[in-house]
Amino acid sequence: MAKKVNINDKKTGMPKDEYLSDVADLFKMFSDSTRVKIMFALMDKELCVMDISSLLNMTQSAISHQLKILKSANLVSNRREGKTIYYMLSDDHVKSIIAQGLDHILE
Amino acid sequence: MAKKVNINDKKTGMPKDEYLSDVADLFKMFSDSTRVKIMFALMDKELCVMDISSLLNMTQSAISHQLKILKSANLVSNRREGKTIYYMLSDDHVKSIIAQGLDHILE
DNA sequence: TGAACATATGAACAATTATTCATATAATGT
DNA sequence: ACATTATATGAATAATTGTTCATATGTTCA
Predict the structure, then answer these.
(1) B11 in contact with A at a CB cutoff of 8 Å?
(2) Full residue range of the structural domain in which residue B37 is found
(3) Contact A20/B36, CB-based, under 8 Å?
């Protein structure tokens, strides 16, 4: 039988503060339209920084800053190929979270 | 045959800016731990403002402000019963979004 | 080695935001 | 009408955050 980890607080019955804070931090990554656009663009294929900045019509610096934030949250990863650095989603969850968001607003 | 609404931009092939901004705005509602806690608490049952503030150990005012924000995003609704106002989730999407967030961080 | 290109980074700034405090609104019971 | 209880709201404040600008780092090729 699989071990069941208890994430709930004994008093409130809710998940411990830490977990719900982590949930909020996760969604914070999706709460900025630039980041959402970046992640959406990466759903199909990997892209380099310049690709993304011209696709979104934003400066290389702005994109680079946001990519760093997404990477620190482990939502994107990258690989270098010569001078170019390609970014990709690091997790299928990203796709389904965005899909669910679109679902909700289009309902 | 159902009518297919095109939400994509012709140039980029991505959903139009407006939609991805709306997605970001939706997730912004889930990007604050107080709001996440409130919505989690409302998953089971409706609660009045005082219930929520004592459950989360926060002031009535802070909770009231956040409830207003959630209501303006149509994520919660309320009903009055005498002096008391009960809040509830207005949408099953809320549950599944939070569940998916928890899923991701617990994986 | 040096020029050219791709990306990263730090500081600064404006804008947004969550909470607090004080007070207002609304409903109830006496 | 008045005191009490429940909730809402406006202003103020501190903290966080996204973008810009200037510059640094790292890679390639001649």
Answers:
(1) no
(2) 16-106
(3) yes
